[in-house]
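Worked problem 6 (solution included).
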Amino acid sequence: RLTGGGSRATCFCKSPQFELVPFHEHDYPMIRQTTSSSLDRTELLTGVNFARNFMDDLLLPHGINRAIYLDVDTIVQGDLVNLWSTHFQEGKLFAAANSCYLHMSYWFDFDVDVVKNTLNKKDCYINAGVYIVDLLQYKERRIQSTIASLVAQHRHHKIWKVGVHQSSFILALYNYTQLLDPRWNLVQLGWNKELKSAKLNEAFVLHWNGEKKPWLNDGLYKDRWRPFSSDVFIR
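Solution. The predicted structure is:
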């Protein structure tokens, strides 16, 4: 739940099964520096959208050294133990699935040095709606600072063409990324009406990226979402 007005927000929820860590936007001054009305798509500039940038600060004090992240518009159909057991290759700390319906050239400006020196414009875009991350390495590599630096640069000269928090996050982590089986993040459910039942059935995680969220009147694939739409876990 997102509460508060203006530039401050608090995210919290309740569950009888999990110990949940609160996120208070005002505890992180970097959010105020990185969320600016000069950036495009102001609806993405709420502080809670940047909460995952600070997972190392939030979770390492609780003895949690790695974490799985799931966007709120996802449903899990597979066993997350298998995702949790991901073995990171040498030098990697972040694992996510890519999606080849869009390429890096759609998202990023390859005339910018930091982009052309890091990415390949023909590479498939990496969607950060589902991932696993090594928080110890995330902190050691100072990923928070890298993200803040990229967003600051973007304010003066656009680095990415689309989005804010996901684009900066992916660019900061790109050299530390390994790919997951794409079944861990089946995207397009929020806009593509042509996804086959077989593909939906075999996916480990369904992801309604796009505008037609399943809880909206015009949402897609509501039959997949409805069995899990109880408010038992989040109030």
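Discussion: The first strand starts at residue 2 and ends at 3.
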